[in-house]
Structures are given as structure tokens and as C-alpha cells.
Amino acid sequence: MQLLYPLKNIFVTQRYGERPEVYNSFGLSSHNGIDFRAATGTEIFAAQDGFVKLVEDQGNKAYGLHIRLQHAGQGAMSSYETEYSHLQKAVVSKGQQVKAGQLIAYSNNSGFSSAAHLHFGLRMTDQNGNPVALANGNKGWIDPQTFLVEKLSPNPLPLDPWQLNAVTWIQSTQISSGERPLDQITRVEVFELLRKYHEYLKSQST
């Protein structure tokens, strides 16, 4: 699976999994996405083809004005959704079809936020768009970094059977909880395999 970076100039201000002391109060184990530096009014783009699942304004709470896109599965991956938060203005509406790289919004500092930025999230869903792996400590949100590329490859590497098993395991288990003793080594091995796959995708897009 490949996701385009959702803005042109990439500068990460907070990574997935950081600052658990802040996000525990929201029922999360840690930061559940990636924050990118984005001055007010920065153009925000769709990470992949899909449709607009949600456009919602939560005021000065949580995500503020935010957009959620639903995407069909790619290869062995199940369906998934992407989240774009703390926006100034949405230029798409619920139910609208979008293409990868299409302008969907402008950034801001809305919601629970101390400075203008973009919060970007990724969560796997079933074929009906319902989130899966909700017990992973972050309500099903996983680290998008593995899948982000600056340019989509027209021929991404198909998943081998062992990769399919790894992806399925990630989607269906509490990957970040560490509650099951045997998971620790397995998680390290799985992430290494996905890292190599991501490096291949990057090499194909250059």
C-alpha cells in the first residue's frame, strides 16, 4: 500500500507513539498519527483515491475541523481510512469521490492544538468501513509512516504470502500493546519486513 504525503513541504513535528502523558486523557496510549508543520492556509491533499467519509467541525476540541477519507484495499491490504485534522477550510464534501493528490482542505490550528499544523492518521477498516483492531491502544489508528511516499509507484511490489500474513497479523492483533509475551520478537520482525517493503516502494517512485 502506498500513501502520498498529504502536503508539499514535509517537516514532521510529532511522530506516532510519542507523548503518552498527553494522549492518555483522550483514551489513547500515545499520539495516534503524524503531525506535519503546516502554516495556516497550507494546501492539504488526499493521500490516495477514495471518497469523503466525514467532514466535521469539533470546534476547539479534539480534531477541530477535520476530514476523513475512505479508501478501497490495495492488493492484500484491507480497506482503510485516512484522517486530516485541525483544518481551516474543507473544499470537499461528504460522499465526494477524490483522487490521490487532489486538494481537499487548507490547514489551521482548530481543535486541541497549540499551533497550526496537520495531524494525519491511518486506520484499517473492514469492507463496510468499520474500524478494526480497536484494542491496539490507539483506537485502531496505526503509524502511517511506513506507507508514505512522495510519488506513487505505478507497479508496487505485490505481497508475498509471508508479507500477507504479516499484514493480516498487524491488522487483527493488539500490535502495540505488548500484552502477550511472545509478541515482542514477532513485532520487531514484522516491522523490519514492512520497512524493507517501504524502501522498495521509495526506490520505485524515484
Word description of this protein:
The chain has 206 residues and is of the alpha+beta class. The chain contains three helices and 13 strands. Strands 2, 3, 5, 6, 7, 9, 11 and 12 form an eight-stranded antiparallel β-sheet that branches. 32% of the residues are buried. Mean pLDDT is 81; it is low at 174-185.
Query: What is the CA-atom radius of gyration, in angstroms?
Result: 16 Å
* SSE series: EEHEEEEEEEEEEEHH
Global morphology: globular
Uncertain residue segments: 174-185
Helix-strand category: alpha+beta
What summary fits the major beta sheet? 8 strands, antiparallel
Using DSSP, what is the number of strands? 13
Distance between the termini: 17 Å
The level of helicity is 10-25%
DSSP helix count?
A: 3
Q: Strand portion, in percent?
A: 25-35%
Mean of all residue-level pLDDT scores: 81
Name the quaternary structure. Answer: single chain
